[in-house]
Structure formats: structure tokens, C-alpha cells
Amino acid sequence: MGKLTMGCFSSLVGSLSLDFAVKLTDAAVKKGHKVDLWVSGNATMLSKKGQKAFKDYSALEKKIQELLATGNFQVTACEACAEARGYRKEDTMEGFKRHSMDWYLASCFSADRVLHIGGD
Amino acid sequence: MKLGVLVSDFRNMDDILSKLTADKLGIILVSNGVYHAAVKEGGGASSILGKSPHLYVLSEDLETRGFSAEQIDRRVKPVTYSDLVDLIFNEYEKVIWV
Amino acid sequence: MATKKLAFVVKTLPYKTEASRLALTHAIASQTVEIYLADGDLVEPVVAFCGDGVLNCLKNQKAMNLYGLTSIEQHLKNSLLLDLKVLYCKEDMERLGISEDSLIMDAEDIGGETKAHIVSFSEIQKEMESSDHLLFF
């Protein structure tokens, strides 16, 4: 089994690209792979706890928590991008890390595959 | 190199796809890229479908947009997210999202 | 001791979205990645601008004056100051009518020695082939 590193910069709710990243993560983890997900730019919204699940809006917090519980998934938000948007450490959901951009590069270093999804 | 290209848009894809070369080029239609498999603009198939014999479309994104596997170009193979994981790990050394 | 090469390929226009800024800041982060890696392990970035992305590389950007933002121009100069390999696609420059003298080719004004290179797409393709991973912005 291998390791997939993904970077996604797309908005939570505003773009389904982030949902794609999470669904692909789910499929990869179910097949026994490890996944690192780096969120930067608008995707740092994903780190915010207390997201409400409405039918008209994609809801990813619960799935992220389930994936974290597997032990084969790490998700990290760009600290600068989060802070610029007013997301503080205390706003971050349990298990969601925050680091600077070099974390993503380090994750790429040890990945078998890297998929960079980019922004909206 | 064996390169998997996840095509996520319906417009403005020709520029980059016409330049990329690979020993094996896979085109995987996801998100709004699925329209390349399902829509015949001006009566003709999308030019992207001629870029490689290895063509795939993500079924979930197809069905989300109101299409079924029966409606897509015959050259394109529907895949699930699980299939996509296998493509990424087993068929292509590098993958990009455009 | 290993070096992994990452190709950052920028094809999007600047400022409407932050994609190209993030490409450069992430590439620059290669300077500090070793804190996460084993001794001697490195990440080597190459940044290539192609398609409409070559328009990121024009001189005289006034983003700081007008939006209070560090310009892509400044991020590019920082990249060159840090000796990152920066490539501009020759065919896309020609297609868009961009001459070399309108582009940021060096960071001499801030003490940089490395220059950007105008290359044909085939050279960018070679960089992609020799990279371990590709990140398209």
C-alpha cells in the first residue's frame, strides 16, 4: 500500500473540488493507503469546527473526523492562510493540524503519488 | 512518463493538453470535465477525446450532472472513486489536476 | 540522503485568484522543509510559467500600491533571490506578444544572482519528466 499526498485550495461549500479531495481520500484509505491532505488558501475553511450540515450545502466535518479516526489520514491547514481569514487555533476542529507550507513539501517528499488540486 | 490528467473543466483545456506528452497519457474526466464525455457541442465529440486512448470518466460526477453511463462517448470508461485510486497508484506515475 | 524534485507549473492568471501566489510561496517553502526531513534530504523545486501563466511574470506590477499586497513580481524576485529555477515558456510568450524586456528576468535590485530562463515548452516538459511530482496551479 502507498501514500497519497493531496493539496487542495478550493473553498469549502463554494466548490465541490474539496469534496472530491475528501471522497478520494475516503476511497484511498478504504483500500489501505495512507493519505495526507494539505489545505491552503480558501480550503482552510475546512479546518473550522462547528460546521452545520444543511441539505443545500456540502458538509465535510463529520467525514474528516471519521477519516482521522482511521489513523491513516492526516489533514493540515496552512496556518498563514487560516489566520489571514480569521481562523484561529481555537477555531480548529480536533485532530486537524496547522503548519506552514513546508509541511506540504515534506509530505510530498515521502509520498508515492501527489495530486495537487489547486484553487476554485 | 506515465501521466494521469484529471480534467476538471469543460472549457480551455486544449491549450495544456495539446502540449503535454507522455509515454502513457491517461485522461480522467472529473467534476465539470465529465461534460467532455457526455456533450456533443455542435454535433461533434469533444476534441479532448482524441488525445489519448486511455479515457475515463468519474461516474459520480456524471450522475450528479444528470447523465448516465449509457449516454457517454463509447471511448470513455466510467470509473468509481475506488477505480480512480487504482488508476493513480497502479497505472500512472504522476497525476495532475487541470 | 535523497532529493525529491517538485515541478510547480503555473498556468493561471494572477490576482483574480491566489493560485499563482500560492505556487510561488509554496515553492519558496522548499528553503525550510528540511526541518521535517531526515538529515541531508532535500526538496528541489522548479517553477515553470506556461499558458496564460506567463502573464504573472510582467514587470511593473502595482499590487502593493493598489491592493496592499505583495505583488507576484516581488514573489518572483524572492524566488530568484533564493536561487530557485524559474522558467518561462517561449511559445506562450510569443503567442501573447510578450517580449523578454517586459518580463522579470532577475532579482539584481535585491541582491539576487540567479536569472529566470526563457525556454521552449519541450524544456519544461523535460523538467516535468525528471521531477518526482507535478503540481499544476
Describe this structure as you would to a colleague:
The complex is a heterotrimer of chains A (120), B (98) and C (137). Chain A is α/β, with parallel strands linked by helices and 120 residues long. Chain A has one domain: DsrEFH-like (Hypothetical Protein Ychn, Chain: A, 3-Layer(aba) Sandwich), CATH 3.40.1260. Chain A has helices at residues 17-30, 61-70, 79-84, 102-109, and strands at residues 3-8, 34-39, 73-78, 97-99, 113-118. In chain A, helix 1 runs parallel beside helix 2 (61-70). The termini of chain A are far apart. Chain B has four helices and five strands, in the order βαβαβαβαβ. A five-stranded parallel sheet of chain B has the order 4-3-2-1-5. Chain B is globular and about 35 Å long. By secondary structure, chain C is of the alpha/beta class. Chain C is 30% helix and 20% strand. In chain C, helix 1 packs parallel to helix 3 (72-81). In chain C, 44% of the residues are buried. The chains are: A alpha/beta (120), B alpha/beta (98), C alpha/beta (137). Chains in contact: A-B, A-C, B-C. The A-C interface holds A 7, 9, 40-41, 100-106, 108-109, 111, 113-114, 116, 118-120 and C 2, 4, 6, 12, 17-19, 22, 25-26, 28-33, 35-37, 41, 43, 45, 132-137.
